[in-house]
């Protein structure tokens, strides 16, 4: 248990006050009202089996923030970091701010933010390892770093920057509500350290002393509808009509009419600064580079297998025999093994992307809620069915001991199983990115992109593998081209249509999604145009070659150009997909939690100084 100091001041203790039955989201504040068996259990803090005597131990607690009082002294940050022994590059609580007005009447609104221990914690549902638990004690959402394997998905889904991915240790950790202090009646360390009485803490919906408001939002705060956070705000001073951020996010917050918060809400808008179109190819690199390769390879492998299996199954009925093991007794099995090797490489790459790769097996722990768990499980099913089909097909001579017909039946079962499992796996893969806290991703275009890549890249792989053999043997590749051209073109058109609709919806919906689009046409404007040009060129070339039915050296050269164009467009597009996303995140400060400053620190060498709080190597 936490040791209470002698002569601890009264303001450091949680008041015992009456609370309503329901919070503002309609949820019960009494967390064991329907689960009496949860009462009287120890949290085993630091191995101590004692049970706290807080009379409100089983009620939802939360933070209260009075923006009028915050002076941005960062005492809350310091107290939190000291208590939790955090390194400079991590902070469970951070103070950011937005600014507005004109000189001399310039207004700054500070926001101190940590984990909000939400009623609907998306981090808990998203975590594949089940490292998160929402406790009946105080309603605290706690995370166990020893269970976490460092995928960082919780950092994607949380709108408040609460989970912190420690890339030096390979796992996530976060604010624990100072439950050890709560057990002995003390407020969290950040609250006790606040100099301006801006932070407070207690049973949710109980107005603290000298407070009037219990608002659920404030300028710069993401929509509370995402997670139903347990934080309440007060802000009574008149604010300018428009507030902007000091970090590098191109966002601003605009009132419909002048007025106080509560009377008029602030809406997130794009903060356009007149930036010119740039290439910024170096900035296409990100921590998610392994996922760029993993997703593209997986989609290509699934598409190629579908084409090979379906053509060998139904091809003879349709008069097409050029893509079967009988027609290519050597190339067909080699291609199957090559695809298996490619997918093995992709899976290894995605596993090594984890902070703790040796704990990869924990990805299956949360199949009920986590899209990551479902994606990993479905990819594993496809991979194993595909591997079984490959072995049964290529080494059929080793299975002569099976009863007559069994080998063929097993091949058929495994093949059709993989045919079904592959597209299902891509559906679950896309669901990972349907995140409310990341509007740029939260669109059906992700699904159209993944399925489009399945068709186009799968066709490209088949064309390269079997077309190369046909050219080497002096055979015509026109039948093969006619077979792969239609799915290839379909994949490109599906992706192109999705991108057009995505662009239109982002601009219409505004907010962080529109800000991502603004970054796309400015910071990466030339790269974005190149991707579009390559995608369009691929569609045009493939269409012309289909219509002309051309053969010979010129046609072969055009197909090589088309393949290079399509693969380049796919890679650039997927890299943009990861670097452009702007989450519904809390505002940073000029230095802290500012992507622009982090880039500057790495470019200039400031990141080599650990006290700066920026890791030199983001991978």
Q: What are the main properties of this structure?
A:
Formate dehydrogenase/DMSO reductase fold; 619 residues; alpha+beta; three-stranded mixed beta sheet; Alpha-Beta Plaits; 2 domains; five-stranded antiparallel beta sheet; 12 strands
CATH-level-2 architecture of the largest domain: Up-down Bundle
CATH 4th-level superfamily of the largest domain: Formate dehydrogenase/DMSO reductase domain
User: How many helical elements?
Assistant: 15
Our Rg estimate from Cα atoms comes to 28 Å
Q: Strand-and-helix sequence, N→C?
A: EHEEHEEHEEHHEEEEEHHHHHHHHHH
Based on secondary structure, the structural category is alpha+beta
Distance between the termini: 38 Å
- In helices, the fraction of residues equals 40-55%
How many β-strand stretches? 12
For the largest sheet, list the strands in their spatial order: 3-2-10-11-12
The level 1 CATH classification of the largest domain is: Mainly Alpha
Largest β sheet strand count, sense and barrel closure: 5 strands, antiparallel
**CATH topology value of the largest domain:** Formate dehydrogenase/DMSO reductase fold
| Integer average pLDDT | 91
The poorly predicted ranges are 259-264
Taken together, the total number of domains comes to 2
How do the helices and strands line up, and which of them pair or pack?
Elements: E1 61-66, H1 75-84, E2 94-102, E3 105-113, H2 122-126, E4 132-134, E5 141-143, H3 153-157, E6 164-166, E7 171-173, H4 179-182, H5 189-193, E8 199-203, E9 231-234, E10 242-245, E11 251-255, E12 266-270, H6 289-314, H7 331-352, H8 371-394, H9 406-431, H10 445-472, H11 478-509, H12 511-521, H13 525-548, H14 553-579, H15 595-604
Parallel strand pairs: 1-9
Antiparallel strand pairs: 1-8, 2-3, 2-10, 4-5, 6-7, 10-11, 11-12
Helix pairs in contact: 6-7, 6-9, 6-10, 6-14, 7-8, 8-9, 9-10, 10-11, 10-14, 11-12, 11-13, 13-14
């Amino acid at each position: 248990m936490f040791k209470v100091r002698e002569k601890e001041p009264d303001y450091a203790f949680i008041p015992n006050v009456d609370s309503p039955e329901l919070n503002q989201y309609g949820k019960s504040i009494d967390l064991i009202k329907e689960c009496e068996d949860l009462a009287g259990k120890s949290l085993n803090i630091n191995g101590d089996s004692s049970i706290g005597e807080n009379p409100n131990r089983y009620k939802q607690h939360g933070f209260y923030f009075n923006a009028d009082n915050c002076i941005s002294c960062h005492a809350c940050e310091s107290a939190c970091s000291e208590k939790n022994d955090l390194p400079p590059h991590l902070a469970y609580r951070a103070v950011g701010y937005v600014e507005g007005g004109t000189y001399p009447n310039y207004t700054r609104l500070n926001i101190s933010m940590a984990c909000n221990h939400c009623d609907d914690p998306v981090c808990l549902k998203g975590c594949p390892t089940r490292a998160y638990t929402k406790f009946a004690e105080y309603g605290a959402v706690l995370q166990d770093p020893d269970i976490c394997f460092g995928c960082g998905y919780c950092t994607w889904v949380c709108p408040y920057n609460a989970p912190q991915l420690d890339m030096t240790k390979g796992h996530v950790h976060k604010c624990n509500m100072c439950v050890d202090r709560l057990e002995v009646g003390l407020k969290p360390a950040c609250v006790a350290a606040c100099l301006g009485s801006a932070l407070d803490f207690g049973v949710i919906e109980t107005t603290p002393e000298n407070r009037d408001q219990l608002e659920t939002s404030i300028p710069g705060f993401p929509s509370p509808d995402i997670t139903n956070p347990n934080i309440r705000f007060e802000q009574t001073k008149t604010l300018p009509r428009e507030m902007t951020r000091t970090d590098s996010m191109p966002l601003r917050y605009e009132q419909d009419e002048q007025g106080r918060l509560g009377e008029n809400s602030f809406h997130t808008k794009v903060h356009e600064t007149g930036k010119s179109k740039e290439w910024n190819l170096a900035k296409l690199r990100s921590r998610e580079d392994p996922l760029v390769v993993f997703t593209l390879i997986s989609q290509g492998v699934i598409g190629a297998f579908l084409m090979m299996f379906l053509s060998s199954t139904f091809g003879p009925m349709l008069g097409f025999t050029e893509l079967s093991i009988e027609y290519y007794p050597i190339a067909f099995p080699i291609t199957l093994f090559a695809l298996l090797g490619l997918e093995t490489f992709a899976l290894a790459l995605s596993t090594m992307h984890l902070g703790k790769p040796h704990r990869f097996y924990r990805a299956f722990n949360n199949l009920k809620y986590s899209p990551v768990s479902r994606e990993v499980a479905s990819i594993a099913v496809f991979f194993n069915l595909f591997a079984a089909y490959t072995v049964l097909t290529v080494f059929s001579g080793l299975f002569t001991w099976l009863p007559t017909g069994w080998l063929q039946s097993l091949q058929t079962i495994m093949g059709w199983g993989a045919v079904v499992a592959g597209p299902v796996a891509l559906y679950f893969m896309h669901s990972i990115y349907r995140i409310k806290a990341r509007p740029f991703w939260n669109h059906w275009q992700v699904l159209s992109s993944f399925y489009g890549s399945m068709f186009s890249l799968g066709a490209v792989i088949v064309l390269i593998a079997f077309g190369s053999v046909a050219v080497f043997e002096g055979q015509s590749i026109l039948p093969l081209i006619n077979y792969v051209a239609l799915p290839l073109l379909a994949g490109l058109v599906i992706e192109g249509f999705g991108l057009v609709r995505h662009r239109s919806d982002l601009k219409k919906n505004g907010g962080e999604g529109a800000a991502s689009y603004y970054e796309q046409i400015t910071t990466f404007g030339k790269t974005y145009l190149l991707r579009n040009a390559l995608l369009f060129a691929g569609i045009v070339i493939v269409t012309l070659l289909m219509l002309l039915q051309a053969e010979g050296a010129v046609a072969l050269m055009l197909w090589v150009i088309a393949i290079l164009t399509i693969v380049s467009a796919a890679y650039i597009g997927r890299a943009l997909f990861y670097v452009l996303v702007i989450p519904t995140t809390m505002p940073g400060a000029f230095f802290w939690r500012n992507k622009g400053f982090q880039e500057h620190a790495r470019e200039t060498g400031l990141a080599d100084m650990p006290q700066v709080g920026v890791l030199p190597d983001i991978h």
